[in-house]
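Supplementary Methods, section 5.1.

A reviewer requested that the exact input to the structure prediction be made available. We therefore reproduce it here, unchanged from the version used in the analyses.
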Amino acid sequence: MIRTTDDGDLRVVTIDRPGRRNALRPTDLEALGDTVEATDAPVVLLRGSGAAFCAGADLDSVASLDSDADLPDPEAFARLGQRVANTIEASDSVVVAGIDGAARGGGVELALACDVRVATSRATLGEPGVRLGLFGAWGGTVRLPRIVGEGHALEFSLSGRVVDADEALRMGLVSRIVDDPREVAASMADNDHQSLRIIKKRLRDRGPDDEQFEDEAAGFAELHRANVDDIAASREE
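The structure derived from this sequence is encoded token-by-token as follows.
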């Protein structure tokens, strides 16, 4: 479930599935993308409800991608996540990821697509896909090395380990550790709105990543089909 509230020029977009640590099903991803695409607010704060930012893809959905006719196939699911992350990145709004609690897998990837990532001292971040025979395929293999450098990106993704807010700051995964991410987003919304839009466009103006995204989605689908039984079993651990 995606919930929105407005506070002046700031729009707060909340992933609201606290009982599942805000894990995203395909319908939730679509709703998140539609919500960001439709916003006309100069600044958006993306946050999670409860004790997590976002646990990434809902494992019940992931385990059923090739067996449930109502769900996309693995490559299409990766493409859906990529489209949502690309929508965040391309939005005219400045999008701030307020990471308070756990960010895992796709949750990290959605944060990477945001323009600014700030964390509270309670934040933890990890890419556990390698432990399940998967990897981050919502643009993570494209954006992560760009943001933290190849060395950090390789170690973070290949180890599957979880880092706390201090280490995330040292790596460059987040830019600040704050008490309240909402205050950061609200202060940005006080700036000139046209300047925000133009500065974001100039700093974000890069060549196309289409081929890298295609390879990422295809690789996710290959690993999913090889490891779907293990993924299904992990839901019960």
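The two ends are 25 Å apart (CA to CA). These observations are discussed further in the main text.
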